[in-house]
Design a protein that fits this description.
The complex is a heterodimer. Chain A is mostly beta strands. Chain A has strands at residues 5-7, 10-13, 19-24, 31-38, 42-50, 53-57, 64-68, 74-78, 87-94, 105-106, 110-114. In chain A, strand 4 (31-38) and strand 5 (42-50) form a beta hairpin. Chain A starts with a strand and ends with a strand. The relative contact order of chain A is 0.33. By secondary structure, chain B is mainly β. Chain B is built from no helices and twelve strands. In chain B, the strands form three sheets. In chain B, strands 2, 5, 6, 10, 11 and 12 form a six-stranded mixed sheet that branches. In chain B, strands 3-9-8-7 form a four-stranded antiparallel sheet, with no helix packed on it. A two-stranded antiparallel ribbon of chain B has the order 1-4. In chain B, a hairpin with a 5-residue loop joins strand 5 and strand 6 (44-50). The chains are: A mainly beta, B mainly beta. The A-B interface holds A 2, 4, 31, 33, 42-43, 45, 48, 50, 55-56, 58, 90, 92, 94, 96, 100-109 and B 32, 36, 42-46, 49, 51, 90, 94, 96-108.
């Protein structure tokens, strides 16, 4: 158990809909990352938040947005869903104050199926 | 920009045989290198990481990796594999520094250990 909690574990929704994925980082971790894993694209970095502020942006679509709340949990919002958004979405956390090369801990992921 | 190439998408081996999973990276700055493992229906777990110092890094479950700066490689090895090592293995790189510790992953190598 990495200490990173993601909900829901599985989600099936229709095209055009909107969903929210939730993540609770490890206790004390200030950074939260979101990754998307799909068969064709592999593991893609979406976005990073540090202590409530956006710090880095990757291949995140405009239809997607995220935020990190004062209690450090994070939500990833996916809207106008398309079939191609079906993937495993990982949340991860780390504590940058722990020094260079600090370990990033991953949750078990949220499986999103768009039908 | 950083990139990671895992040279083999699938590696089948017999139990108790040695295995090497190959990883090459590309980066214009000093990097930190990681190997993660993903067991079926689970999240990613850190196997080992290279930050600095000794080029031979030992990790969990008997795995080790060797950093070779001249060949920009970070190959993962295990002298004798078990059935339970069957999983997908991901090589990753991060640039370190500041608060941006995002990982760039390779496409993964599926290790299948057969009896």
């Amino acid at each position: 158990d990495s200490g990173v909690t993601q909900t829901p574990k599985h989600l099936i929704t229709a095209t055009g809909q909107r969903v929210t994925l939730r993540c609770s980082p490890r206790s004390g971790d200030l950074s939260v990352y979101w990754y998307q894993q799909s068969l064709d694209q592999g593991l893609q970095f979406l976005i990073q938040y540090y202590n409530g502020e956006e710090r880095a942006k990757g291949n995140i679509l405009e239809r997607f947005s995220a935020q990190q709340f004062p209690d450090l949990h994070s939500e990833l919002n996916l809207s106008s869903l398309e079939l191609g958004d079906s993937a495993l979405y990982f949340c991860a956390s780390s504590d940058p104050t722990g020094g260079v090369g600090n370990t990033i801990y991953f949750g078990e992921g949220s499986w999103l199926t768009v039908v | 920009a950083q990139s990671v190439t895992q040279l083999d998408s699938q590696v089948p081996v017999f139990e108790e045989a040695p295995v090497e999973l190959r990883c090459n990276y590309s980066s214009s700055v000093s990097v930190y290198l990681f190997w993660y493992v993903q067991y079926p229906n689970q999240g990613l777990q850190l196997l080992l990481k290279y930050l600095s110092g000794s080029t031979l890094v030992k990790g969990i479950n008997g795995f080790e990796a060797e950093f070779n700066k001249s060949q920009t490689s970070f190959h993962l090895r295990k002298p004798s594999v078990h059935i339970s090592d069957t999983a997908e293995y991901f090589c990753a790189v991060s640039g370190g520094g500041g608060s941006n510790y995002k990982l760039t992953f390779g496409k993964g190598t599926l290790l299948t250990v057969n009896p």
